[in-house]
Fold each of these.
Amino acid sequence: GAGVSQSPSNKVTEKGKDVELRCDPISGHTALYWYRQSLGQGLEFLIYFQGNSAPDKSGLPSDRFSAERTGGSVSTLTIQRTQQEDSAVYLCASRRTGTGELFFGEGSRLTVL
Amino acid sequence: AQSVSQHNHHVILSEAASLELGCNYSYGGTVNLFWYVQYPGQHLQLLLKYFSGDPLVKGIKGFEAEFIKSKFSFNLRKPSVQWSDTAEYFCAVYSGGGADGLTFGKGTHLIIQP
């Protein structure tokens, strides 16, 4: 596609429910990142995928968070048993091969009631 | 691990004032440098980038940045800001490799008063 696509753009859920956030990166970009941005805060790194390599999960805040990337393309971030502190904008970005330039999606705003 | 430091978390300026946002990084090797901008309600987008060559790079909307290798700095500048420049600005450094090869600063929230 022309850009990084994320869905849903907004998600309101009740505490304890599971949510899935989807990211469709730019075609041909082998690197994909998930970040979390809370209100007034910077970018919190969550997870990094590079081609077929094992993902770098070092930024995931708890074992309630997981992510997968199927076929080296679409990625899904799953948050189980959501908590209010999970409320944030979840950003996905894909990286142009050979450079550090990231292309960001519009984000998925998650609100946990 | 490398780090990126943005000196000012909040900056308030009047229209037509000059702007300089500081960015320093810790990695001693070859780097790619970026400034991203996030306008209110919009997604992060690239403002400008440095890979090699002329250390003074120009980006969109009249912004420029200067790479000073000896100071490990990549400060963002604009001679005369506009109200529409109100946004969050992030500096980023890429040194290659895995996830820790790409590091963002904590961001600077810029408010331009009309």
Amino acid sequence: AQSVTQPDIHITVSEGASLELRCNYSYGATPYLFWYVQSPGQGLQLLLKYFSGDTLVQGIKGFEAEFKRSQSSFNLRKPSVHWSDAAEYFCAVGGGATNKLIFGTGTLLAVQP
Amino acid sequence: DGGITQSPKYLFRKEGQNVTLSCEQNLNHDAMYWYRQDPGQGLRLIYYSQIVNDFQKGDIAEGYSVSREKKESFPLTVTSAQKNPTAFYLCASSPLTGQNQPQHFGDGTRLSIL
């Protein structure tokens, strides 16, 4: 079955510290992977995407993610977190003609001053 | 600016009442999607449409209905058959050319029961 797992429901980091959010997927074909961010009461904003090629992808707001096929993972990283990064982060996998996405349950990030 | 507009931002439903959530996009996207978001459950697909006058059920379509009479519009009706409608509803769209294009999201509608 196709699925996305985000093992961490909540993460708290100090401002300026590094961040890694985990994402594991199960998908029968070549996966197309996305990270979205959601501020409270808002829609989702695309941070970055992986379709093919270089397995380390750069996104907006200083985020990057690395695709590891052998581990079925697509973890999101940021070297230095800012207070404005506090939000909920969703990993998603998609593919096929319908462009449907399967979302993980999200990781809520809190940033301590 | 191009984007997706959802209205209203907040909506209240009485018992036995149908309510309709609006979603309009000016991105010229072919595909549109409706998701339901509940705390701790991520986003679940309700319905999607790839072309005008055609749509398909997603994972949790029971108690919902949609229409796609215009490319720009994809309204969602929450019917009285949906017994637990309280949730945050998100509309999204994407192009289909080139496949696997990212979905773009509106700002959502929060539906509550009176």
